[in-house]
Amino acid sequence: MTDKTQLRGGCLCGAIRYQTSAMPFAADHCHCRQCQKHTGAVVASWMDFKTEQVSWTKGTVNEYPSSEYVRRGFCPDCGSTLTYRDTRHPDYTTMTIATLDKPSQVQPTYHIHTDSQVSWLVIDDDCKRFPQGCTEESNS
Questions:
Q1: What are phi and psi of 131, to 5 degrees?
Q2: How confident is the model at residue 135 (pLDDT cuts 50, 70, 90)?
Q3: 123 Cβ partners below 8 Å, 6+ apart?
Q4: DSSP secondary structure letters along 23-39
Q5: Could you tell me where the DSSP H helices lie in the chain?
Q6: Do 38 and 81 touch, CB atoms closer than 8 A?
Q7: What is the distance between the alpha carbons of residues 97 and 26, in angstroms, rounded to a whole number?
Q8: Labelling 26: which of 75, 100, 112, 128 has CA 20 to 30 A away?
């Protein structure tokens, strides 16, 4: 594992820490209402890993079942949003970019659920935009 590919992060209070063995294979800004409510922000920035690339080095993430298949992870002590997990895809772990020690290390390349983006937020970037989620069909 090299410093270039290893990312480290954790929650606000430090009770939960993690590291990765690789850079994420995808990163996005999500504007959906559930992410807005879960994070308390109008947009959530996420990064995707294969589950085996993420190691929890301190503490345990609590999960809230926000829908039939989605589990949203948070610190039980400070409440920091840490993860998004779809039980239909157990090989993948999605984590918030903001919990990285150096969040500038990961830059999203697309926006999802832009149909829920708040009207007063203008983001002037070159990222692709998807009114709903990003699927194989919408990427073609």
A1: -60, -35
A2: low
A3: 29, 43, 111
A4: --SEEEEE--HHHHHHH
A5: 33-39, 136-139
A6: yes
A7: 11
A8: 75
Which two structure tokens, joined as six digits, stand for 40?
Answer: 């308390």
Nearest to 46 by CA among 31, 67, 61, 64: 31
Give, in order, the Cα–Cα distances in Å from 22 to each of 5, 8, 64, 98. Answer: 5, 11, 26, 17
Tell me: the pLDDT tens digits for 67-89? Answer: 999 999 999 999 999 999 999 99
The answer to pTM > 0.70 is yes
SS3 70: strand
- 31 touches 42 (CB < 8 A): yes
All residues at 6 or more sequence positions from 5 whose CB lies less than 8 Å from its CB, including other chains: 20, 21, 22, 23
CA angle 20, 50, 101 (to 5 degrees): 25
Backbone angles phi, psi at 2, to 5 degrees: -110, 160
Q: What is the mean pLDDT of residues 44-50?
A: 98
Q: How far apart (Å, rounded) are the C-alpha atoms in residues 79 and 18?
A: 16
Query: Which residue, 16, 13, 46, 42, is CA-closest to 29?
Result: 46
